[in-house]
Amino acid sequence: MRECSPNRYTFRVVLKSFCKQGKLRDGYKLFEQMLDNGISPDGIEYNILIDGYAKKGRVDEANRLYEEMVSVGLEPSIYTYNSLLNAFCKETKMKEAMELFKTMAEKGFEPDVVTYSTIISGLCKTGKVTEALEMLFHKMIERGCSANTVAYNALINGLCKDENIERAYKLLEEMASKGYVPDNITYNTILSGLCRMGKVSEAKQFFDSMPSRGYSPDVVAYNGLLDALYKEGKTDEAMKLFKDVIAKGYMPDTVTYNSILLGLARKSNMDEAEEMFKKMVASGCAPNGATYSIVLSGHCRAKKVDDAHKVLEEMSKIGAVPDVVTYNILLDGLCKTNLVDKAHELFSTMVDNGCAPDIVSYSVVLNGLCKTNKVHDARVLFDRMIERKLVPDVVTFNILMDGLCKAGKLDEAKDLLDQMTCSGCAPDYVAYNTLMNGLRKQGRHIQADRLTQAMKEKGFLSDCFKAPLRA
After folding, report:
1. Which of 21, 239, 272, 359 sits in a 20 to 30 Å window from 455, CA-based?
2. To the nearest whole number, what is the mean pLDDT of the chain?
3. Burial group, residue 128, by CB count within 10 angstroms (0-12, 13-18, 19+)
4. Where are the annotated PPR repeats, by residue (predicted)?
């Protein structure tokens, strides 16, 4: 029976499938196999592979294929340029994108709406909104290339990030006047911009005007405004808006509930927060790590660490795994209520449960131990942190420095200062001043004066410079 060799069409179909699935290594092997079978890849095959690499963010490999394509005498198409431009812009490599855009024009290619929209998005992403607006958007219109919603949205987003909300409004009106239909991204971008700028009243007015503009706010719009209202402390307005979400038939998501819980927790309304949490679970909306962290933090802020501990236990019961942020919140709450022994126990539990403590975890517990005069335990914990290859920052060092000095362990404190320097963590004003004050309190004035001089040489000023130098 005669063996049937794959033809160009077969290779092309399989290559497209590999690239669509992100199997670029298999795609490239197939590309090379074409050559082995005596089929030279054409522009279409190159474009498929270039686009595959570009969409995966592997812009250098995509660019290398483009250069190879040109070197073998194949002419890139508008599709080739748009794929590469999109990759460069997503990686914010605007210098390379603009050079390619120039090359494209020099070779006689007329940029289309995709080309312009891609470059406009890239420029706005890198903060070059004026350039995007003046150089490209206007040039695009002048050349008779109709803009699209993507181009307008990119510009509106850039203007909102620049806090040029008035110009964003004008573009919104321009869109409507030219027959382009603003979408949910358009409206939510302006709403988000207003909220980010703290113009919550204006954001509410804009939100209320959406239906008259032919757009019904979606759950993303509700979430953005809810969060802004709570941050402004406008709890009643936020709750009214939440009821409106339910009345309009929208299903609140985790982001919605988290915004409400955060607002209630900040106001220390933990009873209401607990009720809202129960409603969330009952509605079938699954809490995430942020949800639990918000509730834990609220209980800790209200000094209700037992309730916070119950939340942690509840997480374990339903199979939710606490992360390091969750543990750190409870560790901090326990230490701030002087339950340092419980914090120390929780720290051990955290390690046993496979959650690696970070520098914040250690700093929180170290601070609690030092403030309750358990400096020996603090030193043991600090040494354990070093053994686990965690690098203390200046805050961690200063916590232990303060504890050692208050406990009268000045020699250990001096050694710690040397350890800071050797570890590459430059001692700051607090470290020097803590040790110097400790030395003076013990009457070790000569050593204190030497440290004062060292501080002066390093450009630090000391609270004790007015004290007379002693021989």
Report:
1. 359
2. 86
3. middle
4. 7-41, 42-76, 77-111, 112-147, 148-182, 183-217, 218-252, 253-287, 288-322, 323-357, 358-392, 393-427, 428-462
Stretch(es) of the chain classified as CATH 1.25.40.10: 1-107, 358-471
Kindly report the backbone phi and psi dihedral angles of residue 180, in degrees, each rounded to the nearest multiple of 5, phi listed first.
Answer: -90, 140
Q: Which of 287, 311, 296, 228 is nearest to 263 (CA)?
A: 228
Inter-helix orientation angle 24-36/8-20, to 10° = 170
Residue 22 pLDDT exceeds 60: yes
Distance CA 36, CA 30 (A): 10
Q: Which are the contacts of 211, defined by CB distance < 8 A and separation ≥ 6?
A: 217
CATH superfamily of the domain spanning 358-471: Tetratricopeptide repeat domain (1.25.40.10)
Task: Single out the residue of 357, 323, 420 nearest to residue 365, CA to CA.
Answer: 357
pLDDT at residue 30 above 80? yes
C-beta separation of 306 from 274 below 8 A: no
d(CA 38, CA 345): 70
Structural tokens at position 202? 């204006």
Residues in Cβ contact with 371 at an 8 Å cutoff, skipping those fewer than 6 apart: 335, 340, 403
* d(C-alpha 308, C-alpha 325), whole Å: 14
Cα 384 to chain centroid distance, Å, stands at 30
If one counts every other C-beta atom within 10 angstroms of the C-beta of residue 336, the result is 18
DSSP H helices, 178-234, are 184-196, 200-209, 219-231
- Summarised one tens digit per residue, pLDDT across range 425-452 is 888 888 888 888 888 888 888 888 888 8
